[in-house]
Amino acid sequence: MKTQEQNTSAHLHFIAPEAVASVRNLYKSFGDRHVLRGINLDLYERQNLVILGKSGTGKSVLIKCMVGLLKPDSGSINVLGYDVPTLSASELNELRLQVGFSFQLSALYDSMSVRENLEFPLKRNLGIYDRATLREKVMQSLQDVGLESAANLSPAELSGGMKKRIGIARTLILNPKIMLYDEPTAGLDPETSAEINELILSVRDKYQTASIIITHDITCAHQVSDRVVGLFEGTNKVEGTFDELKQRNPKELQAFFNY
Prior knowledge:
The protein is an alpha/beta fold and about 260 residues long. The protein has two domains: about 20-100 and about 175-259, Rossmann fold; about 105-175, no CATH class. About 40% of the residues lie in helices and about 25% in strands. α4 runs parallel beside α6, α5 (about 130-145) crosses α6 and α6 (about 160-170) runs parallel beside α7. The protein is globular and about 55 Å long. The relative contact order is 0.16.
């Protein structure tokens, strides 16, 4: 017979992770185009959640609603305890400091060097101007993405994969709790895509982030996901681990799994 202490220990071992973001019954339209039609999802601590779907199915609209870049028509969004649709501009800024957004096109400033691109959010958001501190944080972020040697290069001198890495480094430099990746492997060759996928896994493990990865790249979904949500016709129709969904082979995902 187990003692109370043993039972407590076993219970603690299987405590479920907490949700850091929850979306309920989310709707968003643009005129007559109904993009999101009742989305429900949860993102848990230290989890890579892949949202898989064809182009134009509302994947990017969803994460823009989650950080207040778009206002939903109805539904609730809670991110890190913030009721997102009700936030003031200053409260949105507080939230966005804790949520890293890796844009599809990296969004680097062409007029700045890599170092200056990474220093920019430290100066603007954290008020850090001390040269030694800036250098330390910049070099640490570059080391985390494997590009220490690129500090003095301009964005024009970077390959597509390098730009993705620098974009991720600029996001990581603020030590976010949640990472949002919008099509992280779009336009990259298979070898570079695999490197970006490995980086996404490394970021989760080193920074203990929860992440949403928006993609229509089935290889990316396979390599980085802890859980997959299939987004089709504005709703999350299927959900599970990659292996579970591949075994079930739901009709919505057959075009992805049977490529």
